Amino acid sequence: MINVLVLMGGLSEEREVSLRSGLGVYDALKKVGYQARTLDLNRDNLDRIKEMNPDIIFIALHGKYGEDGTVQGYLDILGIPYTGSGVETSAICMNKGTTKKILCYEGIPTADFVIINKAEYLQNQQQNSLQIVEKLGLPLVVKAATQGSSIGVYIVKNQSELDSAIEAAFAYDREVVIEKFIDGPQLTVSIIGNEDPLVLPIIEITAANDFYDYESKYTPGMCEHLIPARISTSVEKQVIEISKKVYTSFKCQGYARIDFMIDKDDKPYVLEINTIPGMTAMSLVPDAARAAGISYEQLVDRVVCLAMQK
Ligand SMILES: Nc1ncnc2c1ncn2[C@@H]1O[C@H](COP(=O)(O)OP(=O)(O)O)[C@@H](O)[C@H]1O
Ligand SMILES: [Mg+2]
């Protein structure tokens, strides 16, 4: 019997979500017939991983010290195979600014942006803030570069809101990404596979709040996942093509979820790549899989099998 250890919980702001993802995965693994255990990872129990001696690890951690390549690097050193992307991809995708730089290099559309650094920015706060609006206009979206679950994300409509949003985002991160607000529907694309990725049905997300914030993401009834998305065949085709290109150029493995905004002229923009997408009962990837006829258990099984094939 294959012995799978689910790493969950962890140290990031997304700890609670990770615990929910991890328990879902653990239940599914047992149903499929794996021998499954869980470990709520913290600074003091890293040694437990080696002691538990699993055949493979399912990383159900989100955010820092889980989705950012650090745990992946530790497991590489131990020689234990794990689900999802490797160190390099994880680290790159954890930073929304770095991700956007690479998207630009690859010619993949992403909203116009600037990246600001706390120490430099604060030296000349007022002028820097004015310059951002001059360059990008309003409204804008301010994001801590390395958070997830919409933590540290703010939509701003004027200069004074921009200043307080930047300050709030700097509380999470020394690096902040500021990008043009794209006014239009939001899509997300789930992909599974290694070299030959399978694009699952596109989901359109509608949120009761201003945007798809933390509350919308994790409170039942606060958002809707529409499958099929209400988009034209042409947008659908473009989004699928872009998603495949993102997945391969960022060298994603196992599974990932790519977030998009579509503007009024039907132009798609990539927001970010989630290398360990949520696996809670309410999460997007399990929904997309279900729409493709893949049950939650089958999805978990496939992600594990893809990890063993690496
Ligand atoms: N440029 C943008 N235009 C409009 N809405 C945005 C933009 N960037 C982010 N958002 C909103 O904020 C949410 C979170 O942003 P995202 O970049 O996906 O970060 P994360 O999900 O990691 O917190 C998105 O799901 C979307 O609702
Ligand atoms: Mg997102």
Number of strands: 13
* Helical proportion, percent range: 40-55%
Architecture (CATH level 2) name of the largest domain: 2-Layer Sandwich
Strand content: 15-25%
What does the model show?
- The protein is an alpha+beta fold.
- The strands form three sheets. Strands 8, 9, 10, 11, 12 and 13 form a six-stranded antiparallel sheet that branches.
- A hairpin with an 8-residue loop joins β5 and β6 (153-156).
- The longest helix has 18 residues, at 15-32.
- It is globular.
- 41% of the residues lie in helices and 23% in strands.
- It is built from twelve helices and 13 strands.
- The protein folds into three domains: 3-84, Rossmann fold; 92-108 and 183-309, D-amino Acid Aminotransferase, Chain A, domain 1 (2-Layer Sandwich); 113-180, 2-Layer Sandwich (Dna Ligase, domain 1).
- It has helices spanning 15-32, 46-52, 70-78, 87-94, 96-105, 118-123, 125-136, 159-170, 214-218, 233-249, 284-291, 296-309, and strands at 3-8, 35-40, 56-59, 113-117, 140-144, 153-156, 175-180, 186-193, 198-199, 203-207, 223-226, 254-262, 268-274.
- The site of magnesium ion has 3 residues, from β13.
Chain-wise SSE layout:
Blueprint: E1 3-8, H1 15-32, E2 35-40, H2 46-52, E3 56-59, H3 70-78, H4 87-94, H5 96-105, E4 113-117, H6 118-123, H7 125-136, E5 140-144, E6 153-156, H8 159-170, E7 175-180, E8 186-193, E9 198-199, E10 203-207, H9 214-218, E11 223-226, H10 233-249, E12 254-262, E13 268-274, H11 284-291, H12 296-309
Parallel strand pairs: 1-2, 1-3
Antiparallel strand pairs: 4-7, 5-6, 5-7, 8-9, 8-10, 8-12, 10-11, 12-13
The chain binds adenosine-5'-diphosphate and magnesium ion (MG).
The site of magnesium ion (MG) has 3 residues, from β13.
